[in-house]
Amino acid sequence: MMNSNSSSSSARSAASISREEQGSGVDNNDSGGGCSSTTTTTYPLILTGGKYFEVKVTMDINAPGGSKDPEKVEATCIKCQTVIKGSLKATSNFKVHLKRKHPDALLEYEKDKENSQGKRQKTQKTLNEKSLRQMKLNISSFKSQKEHSVQQKLDNNILNYVVNSMKPLSTVDDPNFVKMFTDISEQLQVMSRRTLGRKIDTAQKTVTDKLISIFSKLDYVSTTADIWSTKTRSFLGVTAHWINEATLERMSCVLSFNRFKGSHTYDKIAEMLFEVQSDFRLTHDHMISTTTDNGSNFVKAFREFGIVDYVPDFLGPEDTMELDNFSASDTLYEEVLLVNNSEELETRELYLPRHLRCASHTLSLLATTDLNNYIKNSLISRIHYSATAKCTLLWNMSRKPKSAEIIKEHLGHQLLYPCPTRWNSLYDAILHLMKSKTKLNSLFEQLGKANTFSAVELEYLEEFLEVLKPIASALDYLQGDNCYYGKLLPTLMTIKTKLERLQSSNLRHFSRVVPKLLESLEKRFDKFLQLRPEANEAILAACFYPAYKMRWLPETCSNEDKQRLQNLAITTLESVPVLPRSGSGSSSISKNDDDDFIIFSDYTRDRPVTCMEVELVSFLNEKGKDLGALERYPNIKKMFINFNTSLCSSGPVERLFSLAGYIHSPTRRNLSDNTFRNLVFMKGNSFFNS
Predict the structure, then answer these.
(1) Tens digits of per-residue pLDDT, 620-661?
(2) How confident is the model over 158-212, as pLDDT tens digits?
(3) Is 72 within a domain?
(4) d(CA 410, CA 236)
(5) How many CB atoms lie within 10 A of CB 336?
(6) Residue 669 to residues 12, 228, 231, 264, 661: CA-CA distances in angstroms?
(7) Same domain, 246 and 324
(8) Cα dist from 422 to 157, 412, 517, 661, whole Å
């Protein structure tokens, strides 16, 4: 019996030590069945600190196998040394002991319990308050960021709306405009006119930086330039153009629309153009050419300050705009490419790129100045002036409300009115009128006019359209948005071929006019039609164009000229580092607009022997006409981009003037020069601004 009690006492002592370690926060590792576990026991307040009870053991003697139960506890009363058994979850046995034996200790325990709960509640309250404040701050920050993002989007959308829709800047001060946004949210604020002006200035600088970054990565850039005048002010418009190397698509942007003060002299034009080039960091290495109209001030500016030593002469001696002190002896020819003198350019304070005359303007002179000069001294002048006078009468009547209603009711449509500055609009207006030629005489009667078209006059107008159709079609063709310089020579050759065919047809009124048009065409475009060396860049642009290659050459072209052009292409290819070819095969023939207008000739070549000749002949024999065929010929692709970056026409800058006319409306003529420039710049570059 004594041994049993001694053994039990020893076990309780060991268990007490284990529980004391747990109560002090020490991990207790128990082994059972070869496995070990770590437990940490937290005691209630009445058993904590040894103030009221001292924990002895957590052994549950009733548990199967005598295993430990962490929920059972034995503790010795500090005051009377009585052992009390209880549970960690239910401490009523310990409190009952204090109530019966030690009431003062129980009161002290209740005070300790209240203080402990108060501290916990205060701590929890403090934590809750901090969490709530942090949550409010996060929500406030989120709302602030969201409102700022929405406000920023609103500001950008308003700016784009005013610029791209060409609305007055005062739109943002309109109460009805402001109300549209404040009714949606009171947090939204519409910027003032002054703020809008500052944002437009900032956006203009941002787009300028984007363009500078784009130009820094390009090898070839061309420009167009012209001067636009209102009743009180003049502006110099400049546009830039390049070919996307990946897609081979022509890209365009607006460089400048600066105020041009004073006389439009050649030196001032050169100075302003060079300033634009400098602003966008365009050097002579980037600039391929600048296309302008045939104005003598532009021609002289490029003749005096241009990099290239010659200027293509498109003008005839009868034109009103003549070059000052310029003669045929000033023209210098070079065989392949006109090489720039880099040392001279570095020391020159001002330089301009190679100058190209606008081919569309020259063709317009052919259909206006040359044609009218012949008609007024010919036998058909009487019919011509009579027929065109009656057409003009109908066009003028269509601009009056009452007569316009009669025309719309009688013909079913309104009449097109020709634009004085755009010759092919005259052709389009007559063509539109002649579609209803059977109703024209009855229309005169409805309008109360005694005029009528005679059968001869209607026949004359039909021949007028037939003869001038090649020129009108060529003008639309060369002024397209995606026109490459390689289209110029095939277009000129096609005009010549079509006029020669008309010359051999049975024309009643224009039989003597067609030879005169042919003569003027050959005179104005002599260097191109004769394939002279100074037209080499246009020749190469066409040869490296998959839609044309060498097929545009006329049948009358001699073998010597064909061989010269082939050698020219090979020499040009060999002047650049050789790039490896990727892929082979032929692409499918694609139908495009070129097949509808350009006249091709059958032409084959002997197979050359050098590597560049092999690539060139392989390209020329390629059946594919789309630009994708160039991907198989990297050397030719590079040459295509080089020679086709230039433009045949200054049409892009003319279209810029149309935008400027919409912005410079009668109600907005008090815009400052800077604001007007920025509005035109941003509208012309809306693609890059987005």
Answers:
(1) 888 888 999 999 998 999 999 999 999 999 999 999 999 999
(2) 999 999 999 999 999 999 999 999 888 888 899 999 999 999 999 999 999 999 9
(3) yes
(4) 45
(5) 15
(6) 106, 15, 10, 22, 10
(7) yes
(8) 36, 26, 19, 16
